[in-house]
Amino acid sequence: MKKRVGILLVFALLFIGFLANWTYSYYQGLEEAYIPIHEASDILVIPSEKKVFERSGYALDYLNMPVDENHQRTLDTYYNNRAYPGAPPSIPHPVKEKLGMGSNICLQCHQNGGFVEKFNAYAPVTPHPEMINCKQCHVEQQTKSTFVATNFYKKPAPEVGVNNALPGSPPAIPHQLQMRENCLSCHAGPAAVKELWIDHPERINCRQCHVPKAQEVQNVELFVRANTNLK
Ligand code: HEC
Ligand code: HEC
Ligand code: HEC
Ligand code: HEC
């Protein structure tokens, strides 16, 4: 009698084992399909060209947006707000004290832009939303003139409209790319400068056609500190 119970127990255990095994592999089979390809984030991109694609998700929205001619910026107003071409523009609007460092308050308006009733203008989209300490580089305008005369002069900006080899060919990029990798932030949408606004934001891979303009770079002479006391 004991022997029979023993054998039945062994079979019962085997059966339970089988059931457990079967259910496990059945539910494994129900998991979502899986193909061992790399995640998108693993795809190798040229690091210096990555930011070109940053706003490309909005490319079609930009394409379909009507142009609001009454509120377009011009190149003149654009340059007027900068100490020299490429310098961080000053903040032309009042800033509450608490809109300070490290917060995302500036980004409420400057991340994606949009019309701001009280300033009667479109907020320019920032090419660098990741640099959250905005006031490290952007300061409020205090005066419109310098207190004393200086011999500082604004370097002229690269000319626009003269950068193509042939009429109709894509103009070369006349500016440096550092801090200007995110093309659509400045060249598309209602806050874009009139002269720089493009009709082809949907082409996405801007640098496929637009190459940096080859410029002659002059070597700066070796700097030697003229301190004769230190020997
Ligand atoms: C309520 C929305 C709003 C907020 C918040 C805001 N801005 Fe602005 N900002 C604007 C608008 C609109 C303009 C365009 C003004 C114009 O053209 O007269 C502008 C213009 C600027 C410009 C000039 C850009 C250029 O190309 O000349 C800078 C720089 C700037 N803002 C920085 C900041 C910083 C830094 C903060 C946070 C302390 C901030 N803004 C908060 C709406 C906003
Ligand atoms: C490390 C310095 C630095 C920081 C930090 C910084 N900026 Fe800028 N910003 C610049 C410079 C330099 C330019 C000019 C780029 C150019 O003209 O090539 C600029 C340009 C801009 C523009 C003008 C874009 C246009 O189309 O006219 C806006 C708007 C702007 N920044 C907003 C912001 C906001 C908002 C923050 C914080 C989230 C911020 N910036 C943080 C240096 C900085
Ligand atoms: C911070 C704003 C900003 C960003 C970002 C930016 N540009 Fe520009 N772009 C300008 C300005 C301003 C000019 C006018 C010349 C100058 O001042 O450098 C210009 C001029 C140009 C021109 C010459 C247009 C003509 O008619 O001659 C081309 C082409 C161009 N940019 C392409 C690009 C491409 C491609 C990118 C992305 C890799 C880019 N830009 C990113 C501001 C920007
Ligand atoms: C398939 C090639 C191609 C791609 C990709 C491309 N462009 Fe262009 N782009 C052109 C050509 C061609 C012109 C000259 C158009 C003309 O002269 O009528 C041009 C003109 C421009 C101009 C001068 C202003 C104007 O509209 O004439 C700017 C600025 C510009 N492109 C920026 C960009 C930016 C930013 C991107 C990425 C969103 C981009 N381009 C993608 C071919 C291209």
UniProtKB/TrEMBL annotation:
Matching SUPFAM superfamilies: Multiheme cytochromes (SSF48695)
Pfam families: NapB
GO biological process, one term: anaerobic respiration
InterPro entries: Multihaem_cyt_sf, NapB
Domain of life: Bacteria
Protein name stated in the entry: Cytochrome c-type protein NapB
Organism ancestry: Bacteria, Pseudomonadati, Bacteroidota, Flavobacteriia, Flavobacteriales
